[in-house]
Description:
The chain has 492 residues and is α/β, with parallel strands linked by helices. The chain has a domain at 83-106 and 218-429: Rossmann fold. The protein is 46% helix and 12% strand. It has helices at residues 11-23, 31-35, 42-48, 88-91, 111-124, 142-153, 168-174, 191-204, 217-238, 259-267, 283-286, 319-330, 332-340, 345-348, 356-371, 392-402, 408-420, 432-440, 442-449, 454-462, 464-472, 475-491; strands at residues 83-86, 96-101, 134-138, 157-163, 180-184, 208-210, 244-251, 272-278, 313-317, 378-384, 427-429. The chain has a seven-stranded mixed sheet, with helices on both faces. Strands 5-4-3-6 form a four-stranded parallel sheet. The longest helix is centred in the middle third of the chain and has 22 residues, at 217-238. It comes from Desulfosporosinus youngiae DSM 17734. Pfam families: PALP.
Amino acid sequence: MKSLIDLTINEEQLKKTVQSVKEKDIVIPTLAQMKDPNKIPESVKEKLKKTGLWDVNPINLFRISWKNQPVKEGGLYNQLPNYIEIPPAISGVKARIFAMSGKYFPTGAHKVGASFACLVPRLVSGQFDPKYHEAVWPSTGNYCRGGAYNSALLGCKSIAILPENMSKERFEWLKTVAGEVIATPGSESNVKEIYDKTWELRRTRDNVVIFNQFGELGNHLWHYEVTGNAMHEIIKAEIGPKGKVAGVCLTSGSAGTLGSGDYLKDQYPQAKIAVGEALQCPTLLNNGFGEHRIEGIGDKHIPWVHNVKNTDMVIAIDDNDSLGLFRLVNEQAGQDYLREQGVSEEVIAKLSWIGISGAANILSCIKFAKYYELTENDIVMTVLTDSAEMYQSRLREMEEERGNKYSSLNAAVDHNKNVLGIRTDSMEELTYLTRKRIHNLKYYTWIEQQEYDVNDLNAQWYDYDEYWGKLHQMGPELDRLIDEFNARVQGA
């Protein structure tokens, strides 16, 4: 079994990288600081007080945290992550559903953390030359935005690759940050076309380094360490004397966020991990394929970084339900309707934190709660990858498609049909054999197409504890390298 995240030191290049970083006055945060901002130096916090959340400034590396204060300028940190509890008046179930918000990361999505954990190991080990290499970020949207942003902060050149039919907000912003933006055919369900473009770049350019979120285990590690810990802090604050953790429900974009589920299972062994996907493209559920509209999730393959053997359930979400919930919580008439149903002003003020994939995650939690008949003592965790800020053009498109302004009647229909009315169909509790069926699908993408090692594929399954356990223990090792790198930069 090869090194899961290669931290081999290239001393000759590392000396050059240290000097390059020194010139740009860059300090790199550790995972420990992302989990606990109290560990961040006061000198850094003073600079943050004068810096905008999305500013292309290296100091914003220290805003790769779930705990940023929910402001656009000069914020520091909360004691707990930004989150919203979805009340029964919206969900229709008794279970307590907690959704952490990605809106207040730089770029407005948590993928900035996953991309950090893919690039930084190569940078601090001397494997990536910021003056020669170009970091390639293949994605269905948010990951390439995070990758391009981190590249800019770390003084690295970047190439963003994403499907041409993703929301225009993504493209407009990317053009201001990435060195090059490449649009591939299709939409969020056309992942192979993104991979094909990376192979074309490999064959035609000598200086590209591909950071594929679906295959880079740093993605999983960051979510295990940082997102999982953030969820745990919310649970400890909210659980009460009778509470219990039922599980975590997350759609499989790159499957990186599912690493947080591994962390929660380590803390609460009775908890379950449920993975959601689009009903219109039921790859995990039915070896299927198709087109869907849940922007920000990938499909038609099983990500290399998905720990399938630790997954308990698959939940398919109709993308029409996701769009219905997204519109309900983000249109003024929808919010007025929910207010009439008894939803508090505190919750309504946070509903714009919900993007399209966030809506799908909430619906996964609702189906999970219905299936297991959860009570008011049960906690279900999820995340809101991004917010409505990324999809204002989609709201306008839906209004044009339907030919009328969103009304109270539309809101009542969307709530009753797309939220309260969803059933426990298109779900599957996984057994040993059904988990193995899903795991086996990795072969066709990763061994046949992407030239990964079949021995590593087998290690993920047959040497399960060694493979995933070793990965989950790499956080402190990475932090040690980051600390050593920063020390060399400061002494250079």
